[in-house]
Design goal:
homodimer; 411 residues; alpha/beta; Urease, subunit C, domain 1; TIM Barrel; 2 domains; eight-stranded mixed beta sheet; 16 helices; 34% helix; globular
Chain lengths: 411, 411
């Protein structure tokens, strides 16, 4: 099947990630462009005048709108049950995240809800979220476990994500986040908890069952320390799961440097990452994933995005969609917050949300770019410039979403 | 015509505005409720078990969703032409709003675009915006002139707003903002400019032609000073236009106190309003309208909402929808920003966006409340609590919008 996307007002030729530092703002832009899809892949792009001849089974008129790669939401907790709107209100009334957690609220509320939920219930909730996310331009999303905290419930979450792959258009990537927090029944016994969650039988099921590609740990005071994080990720790594870390979010624990030392694919959050953490990342292949939704939602300190870009890092962005600290599904809104709060330019934010986010889930050679041979995951906007994604805050600028060469959503 | 809204999970019984200070957080909530509409008005509401019998021509099943008054967006510049996404990017690169203005950018770009636009072009742009705003729950909006800055172009903007009243469901209220900025051709001659814009013929046309109910002035260094603001508002007042002010936004000019002294209906912005301004408001009928979109968009200082609520003020909220400093159409997003950045509770923000916003446009006795005899402008949410408006950031929680007793939009 051969499809022509014609009359593209602005084609953002985002290169394959990782795109580092100042290069994030130097993406070539073609005006009055066209793009050819063959099967699932980009076969050609260039100026309209040079459009290859021949037969096209489908022609899509971009009507002068901007075209860019589909968004890659590389850090989400989108399989969950329940809601925590009450906690959101308590926080506004002055309670801290830690106070709410210590009062038995916070993540434990979601853990109980997820344990109580059937696979079908989790599936229905996540499916509705994915439908909305697709309409907002997300064509690939990472999905973490981490609200089960028991072998059967962690596997349940990841089975839901696997089932969702065949049910809707958003490509999903599983991450085993058993080390999200210490469940109540293991209070004070983090190592024993990890023993239970690192059983060979679980790790083999994850990898061979195509349930997870990554392992992730919340390395933070009150959760898992550096030694526990290293042990968890190393054990998972022996079973083929590549490392990710929730790092330096609330306190500077040194988790970013641990991630670099372990060759982690990404370190995520980094609100409290210091210059030494940035220096460690600069000499590595590890992707720093920033989550501006948390900055917005918790009214917290933004991560030092500008400093990281100056240091040459390939910054990535994601929603961190979760019921506690970032109840945001929209990549356009995340891009907007990255611009207003983290002072990234719209182009930097778009590269962070596409090419670099793809690198953060080990897919930079296939998605997140406008490149011949890359998967045709594309967004056609109803505006002539991609700057409108950030500028028209809260409005969905997406007119059409193309996934693997096919129209997956239209306005 | 008699309509029953049944199976309301949570009915927010917002009283008629102004609702002052701590009362904003003390709105009665009825669970398992119903509401009866007769014609355009609310005829009854209460517990489901007490629903009046008799014939209903229409029955709407709220499916357990929350019901609240439609949003009143009491400060917008939604009739405009062009876009200023480039300026948004320049600002991220470090240029200040004032630097952009002085380089010939900023508001002057919009003024040129509006002067060049036909009435039909302005109408088409505003109509598209209003369609999106209605879907997000806005049932009434104020619309300012202020991008024409010539008699014929100021009148053109307000004629567009008047024509839009008959073309779509959102109720529109016109405000004459000729004193928005000094047009280039009058540089250094602000008083002469005001002479031209205060001609009797214009002011009579505004009032008798039903083009404007309010007059507004941007009282700020580089725009109009206190004496000019007073003169403009007093002259307009003689022709029936009630006073509003853009006050204490960038610098503390004393405009809030001027507004109180003049008996203004509202003073808007207030990012730099100090304790003496708050004290002046506390003894007045003037409504403080806060515009969190500017805080978000310009990454600026939030107005002291908590302090104002403690001082007993009836705080209102609006989008300030405009292409320069708040390109936001969504009242749900404004409510969310008011919660995360201004630390208002969702209930306070909802009261500010309904009852108090209605008071800010002189309509508190007819809209913005759940009260028998009030106009039936209602939102039915797809969530059981109105807290979700703020909590699920960037998602539209509105399932149905009812305007004057009729379904105006459904998801």
């Amino acid at each position: 099947m051969r499809t022509l996307i014609d009359r593209i007002g602005q084609l953002l030729v985002v290169p394959a990630g990782p795109v580092r530092g100042p290069d994030m703002d130097r993406v070539p832009v073609l005006r009055d462009a066209a793009l050819v899809i063959e099967g699932e892949r980009i076969a050609w792009f260039g100026e309209r005048a040079d459009t290859p001849g021949g037969e096209y089974e489908h022609r899509i008129d971009a009507q002068g709108g901007a075209v860019l790669p589909g968004f890659v939401d590389c850090h989400t907790h989108l399989v969950f049950a329940g809601a925590r709107e009450g906690e959101f209100v308590q926080r506004i009334r002055g309670k801290s995240y830690i106070e709410i957690l210590e009062a038995g609220g916070g993540i434990h509320v979601t853990v109980e809800a997820v344990r109580a939920a059937s696979e079908e219930q989790l599936l229905a909730g996540a499916l509705a979220r994915l439908r909305r996310m697709l309409a907002l331009g997300t064509t690939t999303a990472e999905v973490k476990s981490g609200y089960g905290l028991r072998p059967e419930d962690e596997l349940k979450m990841l089975r839901v994500a696997r089932r969702l792959r065949g049910m809707q258009a958003v490509e999903l990537v599983g991450t085993y986040l058993a080390a999200h927090t210490i469940p109540k029944e293991y209070a004070g016994r983090a190592d024993e908890y990890l023993d239970a969650m690192l059983a060979d039988s679980i790790l083999e099921t994850l990898y061979s069952g195509d349930l997870a590609e990554f392992a992730d740990v919340f390395c933070e005071r009150g959760a898992f320390d550096l030694a526990q994080a290293e042990r968890f990720l190393t054990e998972c790594g022996r079973h083929g799961l590549r490392a990710k870390l929730h790092a330096d979010q609330i306190t500077n624990t040194g988790a970013t440097k641990l991630g670099v030392r372990l060759g982690a694919v990404s370190v995520d959050h980094l609100e409290e990452a210091d210059e030494s953490a940035i220096a460690a990342l600069a000499g590595s292949e590890t992707i720093p994933v920033l989550l501006p939704g948390c900055t917005y939602f918790l009214n917290g300190k933004p991560p030092a995005a500008r400093r990281m870009i100056e240091a040459g890092l390939p910054v990535a962005l994601a929603t961190d969609c979760n019921p506690g600290s970032s109840m945001i599904e929209s990549m356009p809104l995340i891009i907007s917050i990255a611009c207003t709060r983290l002072r990234m330019t719209p182009m930097e934010a778009i590269v962070a949300a596409t090419a670099n986010a793809a690198a953060a889930i080990g897919r930079a050679n296939r998605i997140g770019a406008i490149a011949v041979g890359h998967q045709a995951d594309l967004l056609i906007l109803d505006r002539p410039s991609a700057d409108f994604i950030a500028y028209e805050t809260g409005r969905n600028p997406v007119r059409m979403v193309i996934k693997r060469g096919r129209a997956a959503w239209t306005a």
